């Protein structure tokens, strides 16, 4: 996960209990990147928008979900890929 700005490294350092400020390359390692990505998306830590704003029972807004991490550049292209992956992924019983 690529972060920008020192404040973001400080924020995620506290969440991940790692020294991301002095060792920013740690954010590029898979386990750390996954933690940063999911915590950031679930809590709305990147842009103020979070997963629950776009995905819940009866709603799956793939295009606007880009606002969770980035803007809506290439949102339709990316949304099409995400919808295909979702359709092809076996559903887990709830």
Q: What is the CA–CA distance across the termini?
A: 30 Å
Oligomer: single chain
Radius of gyration: 15 Å
Q: Decide which structural class fits the backbone.
A: mainly alpha
The largest sheet, given as strand count, sense and whether it forms a barrel, is: 2 strands, antiparallel
Shape: elongated
Q: How many domain units?
A: 2
Number of DSSP E strands? 2
Mean pLDDT: 85
Q: What proportion strand? A: under 5%
Number of helices: 4
Low-confidence runs: none
**Which sequence of strands runs across the widest sheet?**
1-2
Name the helicity range: 40-55%
> Which series of helices and strands comes N to C?
HHHEEH
Give a structural overview:
The chain has about 90 residues and is mostly helical. It has two domains: about 40 residues, no CATH class; about 40 residues, no CATH class. The protein contains four helices and two strands. A hairpin with a 2-residue loop joins β1 and β2. The chain is elongated and about 40 Å long. The chain starts with 5 loop residues before the first helix and ends in a 6-residue tail after the last helix.
Question: How would you summarize this macromolecular structure in one to three sentences?
Answer:
The chain has four helices and two strands, in the order H-H-H-E-E-H. With 94 residues, the chain is mainly α. The chain folds into two domains: 6-43, no CATH class; 51-88, no CATH class.
Topology:
Layout: H1 6-16, H2 30-43, H3 51-54, E1 55-56, E2 59-60, H4 75-88
Antiparallel strand pairs: 1-2
